[in-house]
Amino acid sequence: MQQVKDRAAVEVVAIEPRDARELAIARLIDAPADKLFRCWTDPALIPEWFCPKPWVAEVLSMDVRPGGTQSLMMRGPDGASHPSGGVYLEIVPGRKLVFTSAMGEGWRPVEGDLQFVGEVSFEPQADGRTLYVARAMHWSEATARAHQEMGFEGGWGIAAEQMAELARRLCPPRR
Predict the structure, then answer these.
(1) Residue numbers of the chain with a pLDDT score lower than 70
(2) Where is the Activator of Hsp90 ATPase homologue 1/2-like C-terminal domain positioned along the sequence (predicted)?
(3) For residue 99, what is the enclosing H or E element?
(4) 56-62 and 22-29 strand pairing
(5) pTM: predicted TM-score of the whole model, two decimal places
(6) Architecture per CATH, 10-170
């Protein structure tokens, strides 16, 4: 068994959006891809990492399959609440999720100011870590800018760190 020197649980990786309508973050996470995928797909785990603390996410429903829907309520410490939901478009077990906030159950369009297609991928690395990439693809540059101004990078980055810590608790790295 190879010994691994202490390393950061999460390393920021530079990534360029594919176009002006996309926002993206990438992190090298010291956890296996299947554990990170589980964090995204196990309704019992979502409340532990999905929102930057002290916010929490409550899973109202979650049907993880292409065409399946999810519904969350994000709650803030001041009593504010924001619904979040959508439809899963593509699922590659342990490797990728694609979803949209623009549709709901039965492929019905939903109204909202912040609609996008999300893609999260989990690429195992030779050293046991995982390259985690999260993309939010918007219909317009204006919507992407609005999402950026809402704190996309900070919020999704903090959530990635919280997810990494949870995944490490699920499967501690060998030292």
Answers:
(1) 1-7, 172-175
(2) 30-166
(3) strand 96-100
(4) unpaired
(5) 0.91
(6) 2-Layer Sandwich (3.30)
